[in-house]
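idk why but the lab printer keeps eating my pages so im just putting this in chat instead. protein + GN1:
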Amino acid sequence: MPDAADLLSVLSRFAVDFDDRPPIEPLGRGLVNGTYLVGTEPPTVLQRINRAVFPHPDRVIRNVACVTSYLKERIALDGGDPERETLTLIPERTTGLPYVLHGGEYYRLTRLIPGAVSREDAGPDALYAAAKTFGRFLHRLDGFPADTLDEVIPRFHDTRARLSQLKAAIASDPVGRAAAVEKEIEFALSREDDCGVIVDGLASGEIPLRVTHNDTKLNNFLFDQTTGECIALIDLDTVMPGSVLFDYGDALRFGASSAAEDETDLDKVFFSEERIAAFTRGFLEEFGNDLAPRERELLPASIRLLTLECGIRFLTDYIAGDTYFKTTRHDQNLDRARNQFALVRDIEPRLPTLARLTE
Ligand code: GN1
Ligand code: MG
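predcted complex ->
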């Protein structure tokens, strides 16, 4: 955690008057940005944008500002609560910009949504609720002018490009780890032929390009602490033009797994059909009528592909020396990669059965 004095001086530059010297503590389990709860009146969330992941943090935050102000209008039109159903950025006092630049780092401050919690694990009911929120999110961004968004991480969900990054890491092998993970490398490379199915569909026009979230893991949804209702989809840093299949597949990659993303006992790691069914039902209720035939057809395959892609990314980062995803223990990225590959192995023979859920 950075120096408290530094964070306090950053906070003082946002256009908000805190009650007193605010207590600051780490918040959440995101793998990229530094996130802190500023626990005073008004309660807020401070984030330091990871510059290694996002080379232009100002563009990331500008995207988020545009997307949230658009969403707020749409939420109000739907009769919802714009302060609760999406993030509210607090500007810098003098410039009015949605961030503070301090010591070369970009910080943003958002209002804490009261009574809302994020979850690492959820049963079918919560997944059904999350899927409804996700479907509404897509609808609300339907008319958003996609060309005004900066593509903050180009080819973010281009699985073929992710595989090329893996090959590049293996070739340079900067910390000498590649030889010990030959089995995992082979697992990924042997699936190369299937990696282009979504991006090829986007290129041919069979899959529509939409404004999508691109990071729909369960802990990016907020739930009401008392009613369990799903309130909002947050972590909007990767909102970019993409495919709905990226979001559906990624949501289930994480949300329908029987275990945590870094569980090392792989016998405990498999997909729950009940959870896939619940999320799919909520999603189709909200968004089923908008789906193109090719999108609907590829729903089950997208769970497999996005899980494979995430495993490839974890493995690449392990070989590259753990420079991208935060780790808290040795070999955690390798454990994460093995975990994702276990899920892929589990789902591959089950795809024909799962297809019935999306018909
Ligand atoms: C990162 O920051 P967080 O935890 O919401 C990552 C996602 C991965 C996820 C894996 C910008 O998301 O793409 O799927 O970790 N975000 C970025 O848990 O790379
Ligand atoms: Mg997150």
